[in-house]
Amino acid sequence: MIRPLDDTTVRRISSGQVITKVEDVVKELVENSIDAESTSIEVKLVGDGLTSITVKDNGVGIQECDRPAMAMRYHTSKLYKFEDLNIVETYGFRGEALNSICAVTESTQIITKTENDPVATLYTLDRSGKILDEKSMGSSPGTTVIAVKLFSNIPVRRQVAQKSTSTGKNVQNILITYALAHPHIRFSLKQTYENNSKIKFKEGDWIQPAMKNTMDAIIKLFGSELANDVQFCVWSSDAELIGTSENGNVDDDNNSNNLNNTQQFIITLEAVLPNPDADPYIIFKNGKTFIYVNNRPVTTNRGETKSLVSMVKSVYNEIARQNGWKGNIVIVMLDL
Ligand SMILES: Nc1ncnc2c1ncn2[C@@H]1O[C@H](COP(=O)(O)OP(=O)(O)O)[C@@H](O)[C@H]1O
Ligand SMILES: [Mg+2]
After folding, report:
1. Ligand nearest to the Cα of 57, by number
2. Measuring from atom 20 of ligand 1, which residue has the nearest CA?
3. Which ligand is nearest to the CA of 129?
4. Taking a C-beta distance cutoff of 8 angstroms, is the pair 333, 252 a contact?
């Protein structure tokens, strides 16, 4: 159920989510789709995302009773009380994303259908997140959010975004980041642009099929050359969970267990690291760093996550130096 956060909670967490670019919209919508247990997430950018950004998922949909509040500021179905706040920073449940997106678009449309709904409903929202209009339509279960004319009311931000020549590539990289942490989800990106009202397809449409596990996702994304030179490792404060896994099958239930059971707080670290005998050239050529906390990519450059990231990197660099490895850490996933 979507509820308002109480005032104290709002004051504690409010940092004013700022949407400054197309990529920010995609990231927020993709996270919502992941939270909704989707197994397929399709992103479509028209006119580099400035004409429209569409994120379509096949997740659980939004319950009818929740829809009036879905894009209201600080309304969320994911965080109920103050005590949950210690997980807010890492999970980013602030009930702000849809509201912030509405505020910077000409209009935002949401099509949603739960498994109980006979038909889907298309909602058109205004800049404050209020429903302006709704109508029934045919659609499969899940949710589609369409952000129309991003920054139409903020000319300076729109101009900056128009100058960006790498939006599509950046969005693809965002999807790759999520695909590594959620290998069982199919991700796709389609880019079109409007030209005399005809839509032409650009090069660069991309699909990452659903994969069994992180290692398979690595093979598909970066090739078997790199995959052969890395391994999936797991460490845990719960001795039973320790080990290395051939394939990187992640126990998705860990998160909820950890959160509900604070008495036995279990920390699990999963990492994809170069093999001791890995070819440094291959690792160096392909080496990218992806760090996740609770399955969410860590991109912030401040606060605790910053020290966490630099701690992980310095430990890795020290091990790499001792072993004479060159190149980057590949992936670290931390479950708190
Ligand atoms: N793709 C989606 N599928 C199902 N529910 C969604 C989706 N996107 C948003 N919602 C619902 O709308 C609420 C508000 O979303 P958002 O503004 O991103 O806040 P938050 O993710 O912090 O809860 C969510 O809590 C969720 O209940
Ligand atoms: Mg959200």
Report:
1. 1
2. 95
3. 1
4. no
Tell me how far the alpha carbon of residue 32 lies from the centroid of ligand 1, in angstroms: 5
pLDDT of residue 261: 44
Give the H/E segment covering residue 257.
helix 254-260
pLDDT digits (tens, 9 = 90+) for 278-289: 777 777 665 567
Ligand 2: distance of its center to the CA of 308 in Å?
A: 23
- What class does CATH assign to 3-208? alpha beta
Q: Which residues surround ligand 2, an ion (CB under 5 A)?
A: 32, 97
Strands (E), the chain: 3-4, 40-46, 52-57, 75-76, 105-113, 120-125, 131-137, 142-150, 186-195, 198-201, 206-208, 230-236, 243-245, 268-274, 290-293, 296-297, 331-335
Strands 186-195 and 40-46: what pairing? parallel
State residue 260's pLDDT score.
Answer: 47
Residue 105 confidence (pLDDT) above 90: yes
Distance 254 CA to ligand 1 centre (A): 22
Q: What's the CA gap between 150 and 160, in Å, rounded? A: 12
Residue having the nearest C-alpha atom to atom 5 of ligand 1: 62
User: Has residue 100 got a pLDDT over 60?
Assistant: yes
Which residue's CA is the closest to the ligand 1 atom numbered 9? 32
Calpha distance 278→255 (Å, rounded): 31
What is the CATH T-level fold of the domain 214-335, as seen in this structure? Ribosomal Protein S5; domain 2 (3.30.230)
For the chain, which residues make up each domain, given as ranges?
Answer: 3-208, 214-335
Which of 273, 272, 235 minimizes the C-alpha distance to 254?
235
Q: From the CB of 93, is ligand 1 less than 6 Å away?
A: yes
Q: Which long-range contacts (CB under 8 A, 24 or more apart) does 153-157 make?
A: 153/104, 153/106, 153/127, 154/104, 157/20, 157/21, 157/104
Q: Is 2 in the pocket of ligand 1 (CB under 6 A)?
A: yes
Is pLDDT at 142 greater than 90 in this prediction?
Answer: yes
Our mutation pick for probing the ligand 1 site, out of 10, 15, 32, counting the most ligand atoms within 8 A of Cβ, is 32
- DSSP letter at 6 equals P
Handedness of CA 78, 63, 27, 206 (dihedral sign): positive
